[in-house]
Design a protein that fits this description.
The protein is mostly helical. It has 5 helices and no strands. It has one domain. Helix 1 runs parallel beside helix 5. The chain is elongated, with a radius of gyration of 15 Å.
């Protein structure tokens, strides 16, 4: 069973991080300021991804957020580095892709 802390990390903190990283990558490529409309859209997309994540990768999700629910967020990052690096690189790639796509259209 997910604890409140694990739910907060999985379904609030991770989508906020994804929206920030994606918007930052996109704004750096387009050489603009952060756009709050884009950030909200990406947050909704990331929330959908993280809600569906337990169905696609149940073992990894259960290991990080259910089995290790009692440890702190910093310890989770240290223990499961590959997951958090993978998620950061995924959203950086999405931001770079959308930024380059928007840059090419103009």
């Amino acid at each position: 069973m997910l604890t409140f802390k694990s739910r907060l990390i999985a379904f609030v903190l991770m989508p906020i991080w994804a929206a920030f990283i994606t918007s930052l990558a996109e704004s750096l490529i387009k050489r603009t300021l952060l756009n709050i409309d884009t950030m909200i859209t990406i947050f909704i997309l990331a929330l959908i991804v993280y809600v569906c994540y337990p169905f696609f990768s149940e073992e990894k999700f259960e290991a990080i957020f259910v089995s290790d629910a009692h440890i702190s967020f910093v310890c989770k990052i240290r223990r499961h580095k590959s997951f958090f690096i993978e998620q950061t690189l995924l959203w950086l790639f999405v931001g770079a892709w959308t930024g380059i796509e928007a840059f090419i259209q103009f």
